[in-house]
Each structure stands twice: as structure tokens, then as C-alpha cells.
Amino acid sequence: MLCPLILPRSIIRITLLAGLLFAGFHSGFGASSEAPTEPLTARVTKALTEKKADDRLKKLRSIGAILSIQEIPEALTLLDTLNELRAHAVLHDAIVKRWAQLAPAQAWAYVAQLPEGRGKLELVRTTAAVFAQQDPAQAAAAVVAITGARSRIEAIALVAETWAKADVPAALQWTRRLPSGPAQEAALYNIRFIWVHSDPATASADVQQLPPNDTRRALIMNIAGEWAARDPQQAIGWAHKLTDNAEQEAAFSNIAESWADTHPPEAGAFALQLPPEFRAPAALAVVARWATQDPQAAAIWALQIPDDAVQNRGLTEVLNVWTSVDPAAAGVWVQSLTPAPLHDAAIQAYVEAVLEWAPDVATRIALATVDPAQRWSRVENCLNHWAEIDPASARQWLEAAALPLENKQRWCAAPGHG
To answer: Which of 214, 277, 291, 357 is deepest in the core (most CB within 10 A)?
Structure first.
């Protein structure tokens, strides 16, 4: 079998320059309105005189960003005069990115013939996506012919993703005609993650044909969240038909979280009526999303969670959000709770939420713990953190606090508390 012909870069340039010069006059891409008055060579030369490397590279990048289509051939030729590798790389990258904006098909033809390597791969990522935005069908035909396995896989996946954003069925039709292998798999992967957001109901049938793996589970989570945002009842009906317990749990949790974005009480009611094995993650997902909207309402709802461990985790989630916005109001609410076990659990959650950034506040709230055994343990832990940043204030508070004298004396006698 004949090997594909890889042309030397100088020949590639000569071949393309004639087309570029012609395109500059006939493709409708004239000089930029930002075109400077100095010739390109003078601008590049001036940029190279900058003493600081960062300034040199910044100016070269700026030069490339405003090139006209007529200046592209000259800019490519100037690359051969740059002895500094990083200057060459920066200007080359800027030229090709600008070229892709002005004439993506021409830029792609140039990039496709570059030697395989990291630099080519980066330019493939830029030009393939821009090319596909302008003309996805033409881009699709072009990228399958590129040499270099890694670049081909990357280019096909990018074109598929870009095309899917505009037309999923067309992107799928093209991708399914590709030969089986890594390129097709990468393209289908990208398309599916677009598809589940644009049409979750239709995409769900395709996803359920996939073999069980992390990708399928991630797609199911995306379908659940997107579908619930549109029609939670239909999403719930779909989730109930899933046969894998782990996938069902992920689906229910994401439905609850998405639904809580707009209707947290209804989402909460749905989470609590789920079977026990699915209830905890769904309830916690509701709490987390509800807390960002109305932390007090979320905290009140969290008290309805029947599982004590899940309830405590939910309160912690709410208080982490609430204390960052209004620690005073959160503290008042926590101290108002009854009976003692619930009150003390909420105080513990509050203390954990504020301890690192406000140990003085945490210490005062910890003192309200009803259980005497837990009270001193929490206060002592908070005091230790407080003493690390303001020992004098911590000691002054302790002296006036309603705590046993022996605890005060023992704490003050410990190293670093004197």
C-alpha cells in the first residue's frame, strides 16, 4: 500500500500562497478595518525588539490577530526568519487562528499537511471547529482525509460536536457512516452529550442501547436533569423503567436536583416518597439546590427527612450555604430548634460550617449545646481554633462564659493558651 504523501512545509506554502493571494482579491475578505499603517515586516521587527519576553510574545500575538487575508502569505514566510522557538510558535498559532476566522477551509488545508505533533494538534482543534461552524458538511468531508491518527480522531470528534450543536440528526448520520474505530467512537461520544441536552427524550432510547459503563451512566444523569427541567413527570416515568439500580439512583437524584431549581417543595415531596434505597441521594440533592434559593425553607424541609443521618447531612449542607451569606440569622434559627437532640445536631452542623472562618462565632453558638458532655467538647474545639488567630479574645470570652471553673482552668493551663 502506498504511503500518503507528506509535502515539505516550504512546498506546502508555495502551493497555498498562490491560492491565498487569489482569494484575497476574490473571496470577499479584504483588509481588516483595524489594519495598521506600518508594513507587516516592520511590525514584526518592532515586536522582536521588546526586551521582555512576555511583551514580545504579546505583540506578536496581537499582530497575528488582526492580519488581513492578503497578509497571511507574508506572515507565513516571516516565520522562517524567527530564530526563537517560542516567538515562532506564538506567531504561527496567531496566524492560523486568524486565518481560520477569515477562510477556514484554506486554514484547514494548511494545518492538515503539517507534521504530526502537539503544535498541529492544537491548530487542528482551532481550525476544525471554526470550519465546521461555517460549513459542517464540507468540514466533515475534509477532516476524514487528514493524515495522523491522533489529529484525525480529534478533528472528526470536533466536527461531530460542532455539527451536532446545529443539527444532531445530520451529525449522527455522517458519524454512523464512518468506519468503526476510535474516531467514530469519539464522534459519537461528543454527539451524545449534545443530544441529551437538545432532545433528552429521543436521546434516551439511543443511550439505553449502550453497554453498561461510566459513559452510559453519565449520559443517563444528563438526560434526567435535562428532561426534568422540561417535564419532570415524564422524566420520572422514564427513570422508573430503568433496570439498573445504580442508574436509577443517579436518574432519580438528578431529576430531584433539576426539579428543585424551579419547584423545590414538589421536588422534595418526590424525593421523600422514593423507595428507601433511592431516597437519601435525592433528598440531599434537593436540599443542596434549595439552599441556594431559600436556606431557611430548605432547612425546615430537611427536618422532615426521616433518616437521622441523612437529616444531619442535609442540615450541614444548608448551613454551609446559609452561614456564608447570613451567619447571624442561621445562628438564631439553629438555637431556636427543639427538642434537644435535634437542637444539638443543628448546632454541630452550624459549628462545622463556620469554624474555619469564624471560630469566635462558632464558640458562642457551641455554648448553647444542651448536652453537657457535648457542650464542653465543642466549645473546647472551637476555642482552640479561636486561640490560633486571637488568643487574647478567646481567653477573655472564656473567663466570662457560663462554664465549669475546672474546664476553664484546664484550658488556660494548656500550652499556647496562657
So the answer is: 291
| Tally of domains in the chain | 3
Last residue of a domain, one of 309, 343, 372: 309
**pLDDT number for residue 34:** 56
Domain end (from 91, 119, 134): 134
pTM: 0.81
- Residues of the chain short of pLDDT 50, as ranges, are 1-33
In the chain, what is the greatest distance between 2 CA atoms, to the nearest angstrom?
Answer: 93
C-alpha cell at 356: 474555619
Instruction: Assess if residue 48 is contained within a domain.
Output: yes
The pLDDT, as a whole number, for residue 418 is: 64
Structure confidence at residue 373 (pLDDT): 85
pLDDT of res. 35: 61
b/e code 47-67 from CB counts within 10 Å (16+ = b): bbeeeeeeebbebbeebbebb
- Domain range enclosing 230: 200-309
Do the Cβ atoms of 123 and 96 come closer than 8 Å? yes
Predicted pLDDT of residue 200: 98
Same structural domain, 303 and 335: no
Type of residue at 332: V
Q: Which residue has the cell 458562642?
A: 364
Residue 379 lies in a domain: yes
Please enumerate in sequence order all residues whose Cβ is within 8 A of that of 187, keeping only pairs 6 or more positions apart, or say none: 156, 157, 159, 160, 161, 171, 175, 178
Asked if residues 192 and 206 have their Cβ atoms less than 8 Å apart, the reply is: yes
Residues 30 and 78 in one domain: yes
Residues 11 and 120 in one domain: yes
Q: Tell me if 367 sits within 8 A of 401, measured CB to CB.
A: yes
Question: How is 285-300 classified by DSSP, letter by letter?
Answer: HHHHHHHTT-HHHHHH
